[in-house]
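dumping the sequnces here before i forget
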Amino acid sequence: MPIFGKTKFSTVNYDKTTPTAAMPSLEDSENPQEGFTKCRSCQSPILIEELEANSSICPKCDFHFPLRAMDRVNSLMTDFEEIDADMQSVNFLGFTGYDKTLTSKQMALDTKDAVVCGFGKIKNQKAGIVVMDFKFMGGSLGSVVGEKITRLVEAATEKRLPVILVTASGGARMQEGCVSLMQMAKTSGALARLANNDLPMICLLTNPTYGGVTASFASLGDIILSEPNALIGFAGARVIETTIKAELPENFQTAEFLVDHGLVDRIVHREQLKDELALILDYVSGKCE
Amino acid sequence: MENFVLEFEKPILELKEKLSEIQEFGETNNIDMAKQVAELEAQIQNKSSEIFGSLSPWQRVQVARHPQRPYALDYLNIFASDFVELKGDRRFGNDEAIIGGFAKLRDGRKVMVIAQQKGRDLKERSLRNFGMAHPEGYRKALRLMQLADKVGCPIITIIDTPGAYPGIASEERHVGEAIAVNLLEMFKLRVPIISVVIGEGGSGGALGIGVANKVLIMENAYYSVISPEGCAGIIWKDGAKAPEAAAAMKISANELLKLDVVDNIVKEPLGGAHKDHEAAANSLYDTITAELNALSELSEKEILDQRYDRFRKIGSFLED
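..and the predicted 3d for all of it:
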């Protein structure tokens, strides 16, 4: 929401309880019991129907649940055309259990891998978009995610369009070994070419964004937005605690912490995201006049 | 620490002890033991070839972490001179886990060296933070690489880190962002870049100085997306299964070569680089200069395109 000028965005009633940061569940559905799920933050039981009608935001405490990638795209864009929807991972290292995980996740989640890429319009402004899907193997960055993002960024460079990148990931995909690490470099290389062509990139960091994703494209936005209370960092909190043998500061690695420490530009509530992105795209697409 | 011996090196050590016993016996009793000595020396050679010719991935990790293994400065002291170290990121501080500056190789060629440096003794280990850099290290590295780009000086980065440091300060100053910016900016440098993994190539902390035209790896070094212990802890909830994780992730030099993660393997002396620093350094020097010679033939545009294409092609997937 702009800090000056006419307030034209709807606001949500924040008077209930304030959410605390929490890692979303990796389960396919959050223990659905007779149509109910439990909020990871305030622990209240919520009717799944009500949650979905509320953009997957807890109606009690405002905690932002992870959104499926295609739901995010549909909440933001019209005239969306997906690219590389059928690209699939291969177990090229012969990593035990990887094939089985891939197949079961593909069946359960009705998607081929952990990212949706394509072009569309946000309030009539064209842009390329990348949305990661945390539900698919923790949104992990492997060959498919790396290749699809690289192709989207290369195509946006060709079409001279800005890129919006919505992250949700635990980091690189271990089952693809060092090849997954190299996807960090590959995607960053494509983003270097986008930047060389004076095209902007906007990141939205959602809960959670960690590891190799933080250490590559998630941190490379010209503008970095985040959803409220998202957990964002390089090393996981437990790894840090074990290393330093001390307690972590309050709010450590939350979006709010990262605004205070200068990484995140703005925290944007999910209900206001489309308007906010449209406003930013209006500023960064073409010369400021 | 003087004679740190890995479990699987013990049979070699036993033969070596036997050899010195025989030599001593011969000397004190004035008996010619030349035949026995030659025989034992041959046995040592055979045993070393046998053991080091078939190291498991986990054994290689142990060699890569060997406390007597040559570190970046050991190599540089052998094949480089006139090192002008340049310090600090001009923003926050100077990180001793990554060193950098101008140096001349043995053939007189001027280069910019960026190197992750581990510590040999307790005091240096703490100074170098065990080779685990904070954000300042990556930002200093970038500043110096951009200087090299400005003056047209090839860059050599030496990778040897368990990973970027996982601590509060690291996160507060955004080590992830520091690495990410290096990944992007290194693609813009117009000078040849050669990276070499000499010991541990620990994840993003290694890659943060590893976007090169040619990526080399020492024979017993490893390069991995996560430590074998970390991978085992996440996948099997048991850090003790690190040997299985090391094998599953294909982190050894010859496997990384097949995956296009590295371009060339640098031979180590028999028994590992820790057995003979001089020989390891000469081997590395020869490979680096050969690669530099080849890259010096390329134009600026070819250097930029080759680096992009090198990373662009990495990855395996299925399309309809």
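Residues 66-284 of chain A form a domain with the 2-enoyl-CoA Hydratase; Chain A, domain 1 fold (CATH 3.90.226.10).
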